[in-house]
Amino acid sequence: MLKCGRIRYTNDLPIFAAFDEGVIQYPGTLHEDVPTRLNEMLLSGELDLAPISAFAWARNAERLALLPDLCIGARDEVVSVVLVSQTPPALLDNTQIFVTQESASGRNLLRVLLERRYCIAPSYVEDAAPIERARRGFPALLIGDGAIDAIEEFPRSQVYDLGTLWHEWTGQQTVFAVWAARREIVDERNEEVRACMDALTDALTWSKRNMATVIAGAQRRFERAPGFYEDYYEKLNFTFHAAARSGLAAYCRELYAIGAIPQAPLVAPEVTDAIAR
Hints:
Largest sheet: 5 strands, mixed
CATH topology of the largest domain: D-Maltodextrin-Binding Protein, domain 2
Strand order of the largest sheet: 7-6-8-5-9
Shape: globular
Distance between the termini: 24 Å
């Protein structure tokens, strides 16, 4: 049985709710954690397959096989990856920005936007509680449910959605998380990898037909205003289709341009006959 991961945010529920509800059985174990921890666990061998930061895959593409069908991203506004700043992003040159320790993709997308779109060079400081820094007036990057909390707390004029900033600049979608497995797992346990990916795509199909149940589960985790999760999940994209792959490829090229990765990997899923639904 493969050791697999899942992301500890409500943004993954449209993929995992069917397992939570017991209507589909997942053919592996599931460990829930924040993206940066899942990245570490997959690379260290503690996990065999997981949704990981798109940045982590791009940086380690020689070790990690990109899997098909699924991702977590957005066509435009992503909602759950935001910069909170009293100063517009273009004016943050030589400024200290506090960044969440939970994100690799979001942190490096922020770098790309500030260094490439706005041509500025701030400094970045990891912080365990960036929302507290934001409350004290410092620029801060937040992801996941903490980012949603920030949207509800701070004036809209101080909250910058990174998905929107990226789409305005490039016309591309964002991809923050991809599914990946270590190459030796794909080679040695290929059928198990396929079974896990098929179960995940089945679960996403179930969620699309049972969104009220998914939203009820999200409300149990983090209660939001009525209608919030309906709007939120509509904005997210979970299918690793051509537009998402194009967005990820553009992100990889920009990561290479700022020196964040040694080369821009080819964005091509390597287990090609998993069933996309």
